[in-house]
Amino acid sequence: xxxxxxxxxxxxxxxxxxxxxxxxxxxxxxxxxxxxxxxxxxxxxxxxxxxxxxxxxxxxxxxxxxxxxxxxxxxxxxxxxxxxxxxxxxxxxxxxxxxxxxxxxxxxxxxxxxxxxxxxxxxxxxxxxxxxxxxxxxxxxxxxxxxxxxxxxxxxxxxxxxxxxxxxxxxxxxxxxxxxxxxxxxxxxxxxxxxxxxxxxxxxxxxxxxxxxxxxxxxxxxxxxxxxxxxxxxx
Length: 235
Description:
This protein is α/β, with parallel strands linked by helices. Helices cover 28% and strands 26% of the residues.
């Protein structure tokens, strides 16, 4: 599998509601190429998104394996939820389909989980949330992932979920000021719920955050959703 320099190259893929991103990583997880991005095809069905990944991959040079972050619950490479994409994703075997398309081994995980792997320190209770098209979440205890945490679809306030109050639609409808006020309330709520040591906030809407964050809350760059992909191959 290794390339001529002995370094196994991983194509990291981040599938989002608004964009599909790719980047090739070295074996230690450092970037080998610049990030490439295209708008998520509409309607966001499996076939056009896989085609978009293949097109992006062709411009990234050689790679040996693939890591994919997907915005939903993933079990053994099979998609179980896809609230912000198309219903055709439900029970779709993304790992197998993309592996056949790219002719490389593929591993798939929830996108917030991957973002977390790229952000956490590995010590204590660490919570990761992503604010983009939807609201993703991942919880780690001493570096170990607590699987299948889907916080976004749990009730937050006023009879609405975290995603309904903090997703892209809520930002567009209510404006940045109201969205930030809700985010501040969410941070307080999550700290009482998880008693975390650190909270990391990622996703495409982090550039809209204007509130003063507590010392144990950190914004992480969007590229973390790609950099964390190397963790899927650490056995």
